[in-house]
Amino acid sequence: MPRHSVLLLFSILVSSLTPVGLSAQGEGGVEGRITDPDGVPVRAVTVVVSRSSEADPLRTVETDETGYFRVPELPWGEYRIRFLRIGFLPGEMLVRVDSEEAVRVALTLTPSALAIEGLSVQGERSRARARFEDDAGITARELSRSEIQLLPGLAESDPLRAIEILPGVISPTDFSASFNVRGGSSDQNLILLDGFPLFNPFHLGGVFSVFNADMVDRVELQSGGFPSEFGGRVSSVLRVETDPGSGEFAVDGGVSLLAARAAVSGGLGESIREPLGLASGRWRFSARRSYVDQLFKPIFPIPYHITDLQAVGEAWTRGGSRILITAYTGADVLDLSQLSVEDFPLRLRWEWGNDLLGMKWMRPFQAGGMAEAGAGISRFHTNLGFTDFDDTRFRSEVSQLTLFARADRWLGARVRGKAGVSADRYRYDNLAQSGGTVFAGGKGDGWALAGFGQAEWSRPGLWIVEAGLRMEGWQPDEGEGVLVPAPRLAAKRFLAGGEFALKGSVGRYTQFVHSVRDEELPLGIDIWILAGERAPHVVSDQIQVGVEGFPGGDWFAALDAFHRDFQGVITNNLADDPNTPSDDLLAGEGRAYGADLFLERRGEGVTGSVSLSWLKAERTFPDFLSGAEDAPPVTYAPIFDRRLDLDLVLRFPNRWGWDLGARWHIGTGIPYTRPAASYAYFSPRQTRGGILRWQSVPPDQLGREDPNEGERPFGVLLGPRNGERYPVYHRLDLSARRRYVRSWGTLTPYLDILNAYNQTNVLFYFFDFAPDPPVRTGLSMFPFLPTLGVEIRF
Amino acid sequence: MRRGTGCLLLALLPIGCELAQVTTAIPESVVIAEIYFRVDDDRANGLALLHRTSGFEGEGVVGALIRVRRAGGKWVDFVQESAPNCTEADLPESFVPACYLLDEDEAEGVVVPRARLEVEVELPGGGLLRGTTTVPGDFEVREPLGAPELCSLPAETRLPMAWTRAEGAWAYFAEAEILGLRNALAPKGIVVRTDPITLQGLSISEADTTIIFPSEFGVFNRFSDDSEILLAIQDGLPPSTNAFMVVSALDRNATNWVRGGNFNPSGQIRVPSLFGDGTGVVGSVVNRVARIQIRDPEGDDRRCLRNPTPTAPS
After folding, report:
1. For residues A719 and A673, is the Cβ–Cβ distance under 8 A?
2. Closest CA to A488 of A144, A138, A732, A217
3. Chain B partners of A679 at a C-beta cutoff of 8 Å?
4. Which H, E and C letters describe A92-147, residue by residue?
5. Which of A135, A136, A316, B307 lies at a CB distance of 3.0 to 4.6 Å from A466, suitable for a disulfide?
6. d(CA A234, CA A513)
7. How far apart, in whole angstroms, are the C-alpha atoms of residue A60 and residue A125?
8. What is the C-alpha to C-alpha distance for residues A478 and A442, in angstroms, rounded to an integer?
9. Beta bridge partner(s), residue A32
10. What is the mean pLDDT of residues B100-125?
11. Rg (CA), chain A
């Protein structure tokens, strides 16, 4: 869709939403800050406002990171305000609004170790409501730790696997937790741990994520309509927030078929707080390691293990500032170097992992809003070395140093302003070398400098309009710098008494890093490069319109339609000229459009969600496989172009003493390139006068008795690129958890079953044209796969 | 033990299951033409192998007319020969490709370094393939000394091979045929199945004009059962062996055809340079040879290196 058409559509949408019933007479408001008994602000408290004479909520908001909330434009009258937050006793107060001045309140919530019946449900439901009322154009869905734990997982709960149930999210194979959002490549997802980026947060080439679900407070996926404060990637933002605990000493642990893990949390004692000038402090630390290598060590070697170490600390100063420190380090190690050649011919050591350290300082403003600054460093590295051939090396490293500062405050009764700056230093270094030859590689660095300003105007229950501008600058060490203005505009119009809303957003997004991983491989590690001489930067113009609301009771429904284009996406040029270093990547463009429907029930009893996504995605690149010197363009559906994708999730809490969960996923087939034919694969032998040889794999390597039965390689002629599709994919996963409460704590055994009815979902087809008639075999994804584990908390 | 370890490694991966075999549609019948022009030290020639895709091997590729000319020059024709002139003789019986050669008399003055060659293949049943190739520039081997004549290298010594640039080359493919390893390695208990063995080395780009023999050869064999042999010769060849080596400067087309394209689970993908009613490659190579015998070069004026130093065991 041409850009001007996108803007025109958006203008029509906004102009058609004529405001009605605007009146400011006899209105006031309530605002205030919620703290705990130590004076520490409590974030994410759901504030439910209702008329004192009515039970139904009139407005619902949520406290921000500073514990501040604001409910403007309430007609004069008396109101009951309830304050809900897991881990605290509910609070309630009556407030009379009888002037245009906002009534200021302050409340101290009392912590409670006991679970309050229904509070979690109310909190989650109200939280969704608060987001609905606060956000303009962004599409964000979140999952709490309890929701993640009730989703069937591979061996254990996985926050990244969990987001596959959200609308617009595609995971092309069972083998990878890597995901695609609304037609974007997987490297276009910004994955943030407490606000700091992680480049490749996966174990085992993508099978598991690095996140320990015990440490996660909530996961939020922003799949479109990002306001101007977000930059760095163009497709989605996944925010993983760590739970620093309540400040009381507690231990969460678990054993699954994958790993053993423990998370310990506690608070800072007075002897530490006092000299540091802290009002409070709490921390949480977790360790996770796979154990099968140690378990079977006396019997036979298992040369692979994973480790994750994660820590978070949060402290409030007496002056009212918040300091957050978050850290993560993890590694996968595949060490075949200790095996003898007789045991295994491939003696290698391969390790990869992420390291992250981040720190944020935040100062609340008295009248709402805050100033925040932070610094962090994130690094991903992989190194593959061979014991016997030290001239064969594969390594990749990428790092990002992040500095940022931003402020957010109310500029008037209806206008909120945000502004900020950031500076990111990226660096990468990749090398693939063997036999004295560098097959691929490159290194470089660059600065990404950004500044943004954003204004939000709101009429509660009627309108939210958000306009912002983000200026993105990129200066690589090689190549010319760029400055990209990235305007963002969003509007939401509430209807039906605030129960429904129409919304729309339009914006430009940029990205200066790419992964060169081939997404058509089911497993793999991202190899990152920077925009510059070798690769362009990505510019994506996006528009989305939608309707969302609460059709009744505990139900929330949302329908978004979107269009995105992507300029500057890349692919590997496998026919590059080795004498031209700048042509090993090919620049192209992409396009995606579709619609996402989300229906969710949160409340008492059975809960769950339905996500239905329709997507059409395409990529256009020069077709290097054509062999033509001036390669013609080829447009094709990328592997993540799953046209229809339906996720049904059901949670049955406390059913016969068990918490039960089910996920049924069905999607139309993803595209693949079908071979049209195969042919004998000859290689010239120059030591024999250039004669051609159809080299057979020696039969003894195949374990065959007939020495004449060697297997010969074939080349394949391809049909249209990704012109065919695998069959429909579907799978039912089940989970069952039972919690045993004992005097010392709780014990929760669980059973997860993936692919409960053993559906054969196709991973690959193999076409073999040599037999007569030709045959097709293949490999399936996960078969019926039960796993079990246990969690402990005390 | 070995198989057990391999299974355990596989068990670490959540592997899927093999799908049931089903018959599939008859594939397309497509002509595959593999045409190479070769410039050696003392002669030039051309070789063309025509075959068809699986299920149609050998059909309608006999009797083709293949011709080549320098840009704007006179066409010269390939002559059909028996298949063993183009291919090694161990082809399956059902597979009968058609072989065509351009002899050195016809190639003289046409197939020369830096020539841009136009090729046409007229198929017997109708149909035409066309392609062009630019022959890489001439080059000469600097080390081993005296190449292409036989030279002597001490045992257990690495030979840093070096040559001059071949203009326009995309890659250098070095192939070594090593004779005598079976007997030389037998005392170490290493079984050499075939003697001579052939190992390949690779240098990418026109400017990468060095490779170390033998340690940087066999990059494609390192993770096979041959790795034991490669390990045994990392520091040099044992006594009583010799090697015949060819360094080939490859043009764009030959490089693309050899290295292939992106991943497809059904087989290798190659990047073609012949277009029309079929597909294939028209590539060109310029070859230079070196011959090495492993013996004490003391007093031998045919030494490969000026100052050979046996490699310290790695």
Report:
1. yes
2. A138
3. 30, 32, 51-54
4. EEEEEECCCCEEEEEEECCECCCCCCCHHHHHHHHHHHHHHHHCCCCEEEEEEHHH
5. A136
6. 11
7. 10
8. 12
9. A69, A105
10. 94
11. 28
What is the per-residue pLDDT across B190-201, written as a single tens digit (0 to 9) for each?
888 888 999 999
For residue A8, pLDDT beyond 70 = no
Residue A779 has pLDDT above 70, yes or no: yes
Tokens in use for A47?
Answer: 């504030």
From residue A318, give the alpha-carbon distance in Å to each of A41, A64, A149, B63: 12, 19, 36, 94
Residues A176-196: what's their mean pLDDT?
94
Residue A7 pLDDT exceeds 80: no
Task: Measure in Å the smallest separation between the Cα of B74 and chain A Cα atoms.
Answer: 24
Q: Tokens representing B117?
A: 């060659």
Contact of A677 with chain B, judged by CB distance below 8 Å, is answered with yes
Q: And the tokens for B154?
A: 């001490």
- Please list, in sequence order, all residues whose beta carbon lies within 8 angstroms of the beta carbon of residue A463, skipping any fewer than 6 positions away: A19, A457, A491, A492, A493, A494
| A642 contacts A617 by C-beta, under 8 angstroms | no
Read off the pLDDT of residues A688-708 as tens digits, 9 standing for 90 and up.
989 998 876 554 443 434 444
Question: What number of other Cβ atoms are within 10 A of residue A459's Cβ?
Answer: 17
Work out the widest C-alpha separation in chain B, in whole angstroms. 68
Query: Which of chain B's residues have a Cβ under 8 Å away from the Cβ of A343?
Result: 1-2, 5
Tokens of A701: 């390597």
- Helix, strand and coil in chain A, % to nearest 5: 10, 55, 35
- Which SS3 state, helix, strand or coil, does residue A188 take? helix
Q: Which residues contact B72 (CB under 8 A, 6 or more apart)?
A: none
Chain-centre distance for alpha carbon A171: 12
Q: Which long-range contacts (CB under 8 A, 24 or more apart) does A439-444 make?
A: A439/B204, A440/A584, A442/A529, A442/A534, A442/A581, A444/A476, A444/A477, A444/A478, A444/A529, A444/A530, A444/A532, A444/A534
Measured CA to CA, the distance from residue A426 to residue B307 in angstroms comes to 47
CB A598 within 8 A of CB A558: yes
pLDDT of residue A703: 40
At A165, give phi and psi (nearest 5°). Answer: -80, -5
Three-state secondary-structure class, residue B4: helix
Secondary structure of residue A497 in the 3-state scheme: helix
A744 touches A794 (CB < 8 A) = yes
Residue B267: which of A341, A391, A715 has the nearest Cβ? A715
Token pair for B125: 């049943």
Q: Confidence band (pLDDT; 50, 70, 90) for B1?
A: very low
Please answer whether residues A550 and A535 qualify as being in contact, where contact means their C-beta atoms are separated by less than 8 angstroms.
Answer: no
For position B16, what pLDDT does the model report?
A: 61
Residue B58 carries which side chain, given as an amino acid letter? Answer: G
- Distance from C-alpha of A710 to C-alpha of A700, rounded to nearest angstrom: 8
Tell me the residue type at A767.
F
Chain B residues whose beta carbon lies within 8 Å of the beta carbon of residue A716: 264, 266-269
ipTM of the complex: 0.91
Give the one of B176, B212, B227 whose C-beta lies nearest to A436's C-beta. B212
Q: Which of A241, A244, A214, A239 is nearest to A87 (CA)?
A: A244
Q: Which residue has the tokens 């693949």?
A: A672
A690 contacts on B by Cβ (under 8 Å): 36, 38, 45, 47, 285, 287
Question: Which pair of structure tokens corresponds to residue A209?
Answer: 């994520």
What the block records as the tokens of B70 is 């320098």
DSSP3 helix / strand / coil % (chain B, rounded to 5): 15, 40, 50
Q: Which is nearest to A333 in space by CA: A365, A301, A357?
A: A301
Q: Per residue in A390-409, is it b (16+ CB within 10 Å) or e — as a string?
A: eebbbbbbbbbbbebebebb
